[in-house]
Amino acid sequence: xxxxxxxxxxxxxxxxxxxxxxxxxxxxxxxxxxxxxxxxxxxxxxxxxxxxxxxxxxxxxxxxxxxxxxxxxxxxxxxxxxxxxxxxxxxxxxxxxxxxxxxxxxxxxxxxxxxxxxxxxxxxxxxxxxxxxxxxxxxxxxxxxxxxxxxxxxxxxxxxxxxxxxxxxxxxxxxxxxxxxxxxxxxxxxxxxxxxxxxxxxxxxxxxxxxxxxxxxxxxxxxxxxxxxxxxxxxxxxxxxxxxxxxxxxxxxxxxxxxxxxxxxxxxxxxxxxxxxxxxxxxxxxxxxxxxxxxxxxxxxxxxxxxxxxxxxxxxxxxxxxxxxxxxxxxxxxxxxxxxxxxxxxxxxxxxxxxxxxxxxxxxxxxxxxxxxxxxxxxxxxxxxxxxxxxxxxxxxxxxxxxxxxxxxxxxxxxxxxxxxxxxxxxxxxxxxxxxx
Length: 437
Known about the structure:
The chain is an alpha/beta fold. The protein has helices at 11-16, 33-42, 48-64, 100-113, 125-133, 162-170, 227-237, 254-268, 295-302, 304-316, 322-334, 366-373, 402-410, 428-436, and strands at residues 5-9, 28-32, 73-74, 80-84, 117-121, 137-139, 155-160, 173-175, 186-191, 198-203, 208-211, 218-219, 222-223, 243-248, 274-279, 338-342, 354-358, 381-386, 416-421.
């Protein structure tokens, strides 16, 4: 019989995914006492980390009713969960035991000294480096990771005979037997003999393509500058698509396109009652500390990029002089046609009849993205944007963030669409910075 493995979990794994204790099969899951103490500290915080901590603690309390956690309690998948006390020191090794990470590593080291097959699991790279230096096998928590390098980008090129493209232009749809298109994937048909002879299509099922809707070529006076932006507008303006993810580097127009479509659908088409914009409050670089004023005063600083884009779009409308643009935005907010909200306050809400934009979603965990999307009520469109190459969350990377995870898991769903934008359209300077810096 194969010897069981002992997975020693770092606190950040539980905060990343409160259900992670059930992810290790019929092996031992070991939680050092320091992890419990850190969860106790986090549970008082009124944010997603605090909620995750409370969820884990409640889960452990339910398991406690089945037996003593010190000796181990059997999980539903056949594994065993136990809480372990740390040693005050490690023989022959100097580690500062006032550091929580070192106390957690001490548990893993002592188990390994008992000839156990020990694996230390952490989202913290530095902690994994320490464990490796101590001779302990390490791993990231990868259950909710995807391969970013091969991530679905929402469109593909397809080489076909010229007659196929001619047929596509004559008919409303084109069926290509044996294809494996995803629903709402875009396909650029290219003539095998003449590269300039092309067709621009959108998949409606695994083997059928249709034309793009001509009325979706612009939104709020904003016209697409690239084929990728045209794809994005097609999804943003289609009322049958309820969830859209837009991914791309800085300057590709993700947020601007989403805001333009939101204004167009709310104020002109009146498809939705309100435009709701939210983003996580994670600073770039050093935090500036506590901000003065009311919640709205503080939020206005974090939402300044949104205000900048709204101001630009209002000027495109040609109905407002520069001096009245800010007044118009303030009036729309006062009339509750536009709402700017911190993600912290989204949880628990039911959001019907709204065009919702979640910006900077690369800083969200898969669990947080699931929580946000599940807020959508009847007749709500949700747009999630972000750049996985600009992650400020220390425990996420391009493969483990919630935006990339959503793209990988939702591709092919009829009510979902995705586009990865690659060309910077903000300015020549922005494009040079994105390419060379």
